Structure prediction request, 132 residues.
Amino acid sequence: MNILQPARTEEDTEYFLVYVTTDDAGAGFQFPCDATGIPDLAGRPVAQANYEACCRGAVHGRRVEFVGLLEHVQYRRIPAEGRCTCGRLVVLEGFTNTCDCGRDYDSSGQELAPREQWGEETGESLSDILRL
Prediction:
């Protein structure tokens, strides 16, 4: 297998303006915004109305306080992609990755032995291995 794109980790950062109700610390509002705190509420009229009410200090008669700007970072793994010896693209996203031609690869692109040989050393059957 020829690795075309190695596995990588991507980082996504989102920002929110956070308001909490003063009578219930577990309740409140979060509004998406940019890193400087400018809200992004386009096309969300209810969110816009709630944001404006939060800025005034009360939503539906309940007092709210501005807590601050929340930065939320998420990481996600993008699996490697490789070209099988048959020429097809294989996404290496699992423990065992099977090309349409029937060849199996591990997550690093190493070709595995044919399935009929799996379990010879351990006495497992193919159904044991694949949990069929």
